[in-house]
Amino acid sequence: MLADRTTLAQFLIQERRRHPGAIGDLNGLILDVALTCKAIAKRVAYGALGGVLGAEATKNVQGETQQTLDVLANDLFLRMNEWGGLVAGMVSEELEQPYAIPVQYPRGKYLLVFDPLDGSSNIDVNLSVGSIFSILRAPNPGVDAVSDDFLQPGSEQVCAGYAIYGPSTMLILTVGTGVHGFTLEPQLGEFILTHPAIRIPTAASEFAINASNRRFWEPAVRRYVDECLAGSTGPRAKDFNMRWVASLVAETHRILNRGGVFLYPRDTKDPSKAGRLRLLYEASPVSFIIEQAGGLASTGRERVLDVLPDDLHQRIAFIFGVSEEVERIENYHSEHNESENDSPLYGARGLFRANA
Ligand code: MN
Ligand code: MN
User: Which protein residues have their CB within 5 A of the ion that is ligand 2?
Assistant: First the structure.
């Protein structure tokens, strides 16, 4: 069955041949990350039989309850990527500070940033979860990375990807030459290229948003969703479907394969937070993938990949998917004059204007 198939390693070697100066460090790192994801996939697949379901007594840096598998997946990422001399430091959703590479290992020229297990609240109900990762260049190769080294805009990423642990395990990857999908062949333990050059379908008839937050939304978001809900009798003159899996990886994967748009916008629920999702290891890698597949990713006000992070665990408003829909939502934000400094009061006025 392999004769006419491309493995992940083959794919990466073919990509590297386009860059005569490359010495294979990036490929080595991607293969280590892929191995990490295979190890996590196996633990996830065993479910209750693996004895790893349920929550820990601990909370992570975000104040979220850690699932046992969150901790396990984080440890796997650290252990499998610390030794190879390929990274100068790592940042994880589960760690407040950058992870310092143990003294006995060499420091490399890349930074690895990851959400070891995304959508982990879905584990106990056997729904899809995933891992998300982003690779940046270390500003100071060969020496320990410090926090500031990681605060690069997403446009600086050299690679981004995610693994989805669904009915099958897949690895979705971009190194800036399009988006490519690999399916895990479980007997061989090998990722096989099954979805080359993924392009987001342009027809958008699905939107994904947590509608329970409606009362906290800004006018632009209410307007967009209201128009979708109005369907064929509304201004869009067509019917939409709504989807919500509460797993960023699963939502991203559906949009890559079927089109549509995802919104976790800024809202007034907790004005101290600029959004729900984290910039460095959620929004940034997903945005790189979405743009490479022909879509757009925005805060509603600016391109996510242009945002200069000011904190390792910074949250951000995140809207992505089919370009025309994301552009429409950005236009609604600018039509409602929603600047970064708007107060919730202004939002009420904007809503009035939208309905006037
Ligand atoms: Mn996550
Ligand atoms: Mn997570």
Answer: 93, 115, 117-118
Distance of CA 157 from the midpoint of ligand 2 (Å):
20
- Please tell me if the domain spanning 8-195 has the same topology as the one spanning 206-349: no
Q: Where are the domains of the chain?
A: 8-195, 206-349
CATH of 206-349, one of 3.40.50.10140, 3.40.50.2300, 3.40.720.10, 3.40.190.80: 3.40.190.80
Torsion of CA 168, 205, 302, 254, to 10 degrees: 0
Give the model confidence (pLDDT) of 291-327 as tens digits.
Answer: 999 999 999 999 999 999 999 999 999 999 999 999 9
Ligand number nearest CA of 162 is 1
Ligand nearest to the CA of 69: 2
> Residues 50-72: what's their mean pLDDT?
80
Non-local (6+) Cβ contacts of 341 within 8 A are none
* Ligand 2 center from residue 343 Cα (angstroms): 31
- The rounded Å distance from CA 313 to ligand 1 centre is 11
| Res 68: pLDDT | 86
Cα separation values, 311 from 63, 114, 216, 246, Å: 16, 15, 25, 24
pLDDT given at position 356? 30
Which range (139-153, 202-216, 249-263) has the least confidence?
202-216
Query: How many DSSP H helices and E strands does the chain contain?
Result: 8, 16
Ligand nearest to the CA of 282: 1
Q: pLDDT digits over 168-204, tens only?
A: 999 999 999 999 999 999 999 999 999 999 999 987 7
Q: Is 25 helix (H, G, I), strand (E, B) or coil?
A: helix
The letter for the amino acid at 282 is E
Number of the ligand closest to the Cα of 279? 1
For the chain, what is the mean pLDDT? 92
Position 272, amino acid: S
Q: Which CATH number, 3.30.540.10, 3.30.450.20, 3.40.630.10, 3.40.50.2300, labels domain 8-195? A: 3.30.540.10
- pLDDT(350) > 70: no
